[in-house]
Design brief:
- With about 160 residues, the chain is of the alpha+beta class.
- The chain is built from 5 helices and 7 strands; from the N terminus they run βαβββααβαββα.
- Helix 2 runs antiparallel to helix 3.
- The protein is elongated and about 65 Å long.
Length: about 160
């Protein structure tokens, strides 16, 4: 069952599963092996993650990914920084995280799962979507968080007082 998606690109669009595996094995000290999984379209390369959490990882790069990313960006709340929505809409690939065969369900909201997903997303300059809850997790980039505008705050306070 699909549990999470890590959206990224266009910068890392050609990122290979081998490179993801090296990152997982290296800085994150995960237990990973390459595998193949049979889909309706044929065999698909996959990473079998077995420690500290169990999951199956696949890369999706088809044209539908960009359309899905754009749709996800349009569903974001209005208070999300505009640059975040723009970058999410520009994603061209995603790492899909499924339950591993014969293992407990992969739950993205758990601390152990986050200890793998978040650094991986940071390393790939991506965004983690918890499929079940619809929550999106990301690391703010420069420009995502705008500095508070004191003049705007003062004008809003003045308008509030005048409306009383």
């Amino acid at each position: 069952m699909l549990r999470a998606r890590l959206w990224y690109g266009p910068t890392g669009h050609e990122l290979s599963l081998d490179r993801v595996a090296r990152y997982l094995r290296g800085p994150l000290a995960c237990e990973v092996r390459s595998a193949q999984h049979r889909h309706t379209e044929g065999w698909v390369a996959q990473l079998d993650l077995r420690g500290p959490v169990s999951a199956a990882l696949e890369i999706a790069r088809d044209p539908q990914v960009a359309a899905d990313a754009d749709a996800l960006a349009r569903r974001l709340p209005s208070d999300v920084p505009p640059r975040l929505a723009e970058r999410l809409a520009g994603c061209t690939a995603r790492l899909e995280i499924y339950d591993a065969l014969g293992a407990p369900p992969f739950l993205p909201a758990t601390t152990m799962a986050r200890s793998v997903l978040f650094p991986l997303a940071y390393g790939m300059d991506g965004y983690v979507e918890d499929v079940e809850t619809g929550r999106l997790f990301y690391y703010p980039q420069p420009g995502d968080i705008t500095a508070p505008n004191p003049l705007r705050r003062a004008l809003e306070a003045l308008i509030t007082v005048l409306r009383r």
